Amino acid sequence: MNENLAALLPELALIGAAVTGLLVGSWLRRRRQWLIAALAATACTTGLVATALTMATGAEQTVFAHTFAVDTATDAGRLIVLGALLLVIAMSVETVRGHKREAEYWVLLLLTGAGTLALIGANDLLMLFAAYLLASIPAYALAAFAKDARGTEAALKYYLMGALFGTTMLAGTALLYGGGHATLYRDLRTTLPAAPYGLVAVGLVAVLAGLLFKAGAVPAHFWVPDVTEGAPTPVAAYVTTLPKIGALIAGHRLLHQALPDSDVNWPLLLAVLAAATMTLGNLAAFFQTSVTRLLAYSTISQVGYLLMALAVATRTDLALKSLLFYLAAYAATNLGAFAVVTELPHARTLDDYRGLARRHPALAAVLLVCLLGLVGTPPTGVFLGKLEVFSAAIDGGYTWLAAVAVANTVASLFYYLRWLAPLFTATDPAPSGSRTALGTWTAATACTAAAVSLALGLAGGTVLPFANGGLLP
Fold first, then answer.
1. Euclidean distance between CA atoms 248 and 77, whole angstroms
2. Domain residues for 431?
3. How far apart are the C-alpha atoms of 378 and 332, rounded to whole Å?
4. 3 state SS of 147
5. Rounded to an integer, what is the distance from CA 312 to the centroid of its chain?
6. How far apart are CA 318 and CA 292, in angstroms?
7. Tens of pLDDT along 360-387?
8. Is residue 334, in this structure, part of any structural domain at all?
């Protein structure tokens, strides 16, 4: 049995920092709680360096009885999650500075981040469910961090839906174990084709339900707008970005490794869910006036495009590469938009952004890049990500799904322009109070995220080859 702890250094760095932060934070004075934030950033940086070294040496392996795989998908997912987590940490500095529970905020962020990393490399059904719990439970507490009425309601909805879909996922795990007599993906690959069709179908749908909840996809999307509006904005940025990365990579690994030869027509199921998710997200966002709810439905629609890669996971070699690149581009672009919203805490509606280009031109530029980027406008990273995913769908035999996605992309331009147009209004600007900026950390995060989004689009030819590679059995 390979029990190489060094292979889990990124995950251990986050867990170790969380435990250390919890203990040290209990003794630090309130004005020195920022040290835990520095510890969290150090843990993320350590994980990034360790991942870069793993990629440089090509040390792909499975560890701990093959329940965790360190391969191309794991390394790319780690880079995306840890980089995004650094942006969330920087975005949160001014929001939680001086808060009486500041240390707990950073600890919860680290724990749920570690759960997301565990989802990415999970190579076993029980490991997958344990990672689901670790990624979910701290996030419920983060949603209610402000302890106000909206946050409490959001956290309660988040928790109840998480418990429902978590229980469903566990039941699905039991059914797949009953059909395949194993929980390890490589064993299920050989045993599930001979298992009863109905047992495998119900078990797979139940397991996918938990992952769809984490991703915020139809029909497990109902929590997304309420949590995005009720939670602190940096937390909303987190829950609409990082859990999607973990859930979608975990879903791709499960489908590709455990069920490539199954009689269950899961590609069609996921194709239909992808079409429904992107369409519902776009339609619901059309006439939103709240910026957070608009972004919430925007993130739902983005999951629809990402699910296209899962639908063709075993049909084309382009699926994994397109999924990983799109996730990286989406994470940077979505966090950039949320960073602008965080920087302007009193601008809650689209009208509050009137004339922003004159008062805060840098923030207006970031919002322009990120919102047009979410549409899929060149030269942003999401444009190239969508192009890759659409190509994968066509190559995998789902041309109709690519056509639906193109139509949805064109339609989404409407509600993004509804937000962008007021930025450049010269007359009747919004009250100055609604454009009061929070601080330099959040503004710097917004600019950094927008720059990364543009860089991924401009240097996509250089970045995409790093996503080439398969999954370890």
1. 10
2. 266-473
3. 15
4. coil
5. 20
6. 33
7. 899 999 999 999 999 999 999 999 999 9
8. yes
Backbone angles phi, psi at 13, to 5 degrees: -60, -45
Give how many domains the chain has, as a whole number. 2
CA distance 22 to 430: 42
| C-alpha distances out from residue 338 to 238, 283, 305, 370, 413, Å | 9, 21, 20, 9, 18
Provide the strand spans (E) within 47-96: 61-63, 68-70
- Give DSSP secondary structure letters for 361-419: HHHHHHHHHHHHHHHT-TTSHHHHHHHHHHHHHHHTT-HHHHHHHHHHHHHHHHHHHHH
* Dist. CA 437–CA 443, nearest whole Å: 8
The pair of structure tokens assigned to 440 is: 């330099």
> Rounded CA gap, 50 and 272, in Å?
39
pLDDT tens string 112-165: 999 999 999 999 999 999 999 999 999 999 999 988 899 999 999 999 999 999
Output the CA torsion 446→452→457→459 (10° steps): 160
Answer yes or no: do 331 and 361 share one domain. yes
The Cα 58–Cα 228 span in angstroms is 39
